[in-house]
Specification:
The chain is about 55% helix and about 10% strand. By secondary structure, it is α+β, with helices and mostly antiparallel strands.
């Protein structure tokens, strides 16, 4: 039903977004990939169900049941779009697109992730919207409305996004934590060179796009550095304990006399 709902609402949404992109001298990109595959959706649902279940366990909840329907209809990217806007018209284009979606298509703007502040290896804005759809149950989080994702890019940020797939493969393939950190920092530095559209930092909500396994990377890096210092730390501890032992032994002998 989720896929059927996405197919149902896609034509008017696609047509509308194409018109807006054209108004600002921009274009839609990747329309051939606008529908998330069934395999990807199923994989994502399974992961979300598992995470919710373990969250209930951690919180010691009595009821461990998780509603699959609620999880399925909470997916925000069964339908996803990318708009590329000229850098000089980007901020205005983002504002107008959101306003016209809300006013002309009765779309709810649910979430904005503004990653332009930098520092995370990604530049762009990722929005989540909900559009009226008769196939969506009235009992879910967005009753009667299907969520979809809309990414806003400049030509430069989109080109970097496509190039960053190669950088990410280098990052992912690296086994050494230090090499992995170097690859990640390289991606961040390159992303920070992308021209930032005027006024875009005034748009909420500023976010950091966490790279998959980024937290694990820093944990591994900290562990590897700790292990590298282990022998040095052990010798320092032994010296301290040795001095303390000698001092204690001297005091003990003095008292015994």
């Amino acid at each position: 039903k989720l896929i059927a709902a996405a197919v149902l609402i896609e034509p008017p949404v696609t047509k509308f977004l194409k018109c807006i992109a054209g108004d600002f001298g921009g274009k839609m990109e990747g329309l051939e990939y606008k529908f998330k595959s069934k395999v990807s959706l199923v994989r994502k649902v399974h992961k979300m169900l598992e995470e919710l279940y373990f969250k209930k366990l951690e919180d010691n909840e009595d009821n461990l049941a998780v509603d699959p329907a609620e999880v399925i209809w909470s997916l925000w990217d069964s339908l996803r779009y990318t708009i590329i806007l000229p850098t000089e018209k980007y901020t205005q284009g983002v504002k107008i697109t959101t306003t016209r979606l809300e006013e002309d298509l009765d779309v709810d703007h649910l979430w904005r992730s503004n990653c332009w502040p930098g520092g995370d290896g990604y530049q762009g804005i990722n929005d989540t919207y909900a559009v009226p759809c008769p196939l969506v149950p009235a009992t879910v989080k967005t009753p009667g409305k299907l969520q979809f994702e809309l990414q806003f890019h400049t030509p430069e940020s989109f080109a970097f996004k496509m190039h960053s797939h190669t950088l990410y493969e280098v990052y992912r393939a690296a086994k050494d934590p230090v090499a992995k950190a170097v690859a990640f920092e390289e991606q961040v530095n390159l992303a920070n060179q992308i021209p930032v559209p005027a006024g875009v930092l005034e748009l909420p909500t500023h976010s950091v796009m966490v790279m998959p396994c980024e937290l694990a990377m820093y944990a591994d890096l900290a562990l590897s550095r700790a292990m590298a210092l282990r022998d040095t730390a052990q010798r320092a501890v032994d010296r301290c304990l040795g001095k303390q032992f000698k001092r204690s032994w001297s005091i003990l002998l003095a008292h015994s006399e």
